[in-house]
Design goal:
alpha/beta; Ribosomal Protein L15, Chain: K, domain 2; 5 strands; 21% strand
């Protein structure tokens, strides 16, 4: 039988950290993100900047448990964390003044997951 699940050691470590933080802090948001990241690559969430622009407000903290793509524009500042970003998305986020935070750092900054919105 072929093994399933993440094979990338960095992704495996991130999923483990998310699950541990969820248990430690007794909050479900990190467990939800971990379960989304455990899905096969083709089934992970993909979000364009146009969707972020439509469903977010100025200075909100956003998590995308998947990949952010650069289609569309973003006309306000965000604090955003995702597993992956396309190069064009990084450029457009920088132009809009958005702050990109790695998921590991966001876990440390906001262990309880307060005021964090999941988009995808």
């Amino acid at each position: 039988m072929k093994p399933t699940g993440a094979t990338n050691p960095i992704l495996k470590g991130l999923i483990e950290d998310l699950k541990n933080k969820s248990i430690e802090q007794k909050v479900n948001i990190w467990n939800k993100i971990a379960s989304d990241l455990q899905r096969p690559t083709r089934k992970r969430r993909i979000v364009n900047l146009s969707k972020l622009n439509r469903y977010t407000k100025e200075n909100e903290t956003i998590i995308v448990p998947g990949k952010v793509l650069g289609s569309g524009i973003l006309d306000h500042k965000l604090i955003i964390s995702a597993y992956q970003f396309s190069e064009s998305a990084k450029e457009k986020l920088a132009k809009a003044g958005a702050k990109i935070i790695p998921l590991n750092d966001l876990i440390k900054e906001s262990p309880k997951g307060k005021r964090i919105k999941i988009i995808g």
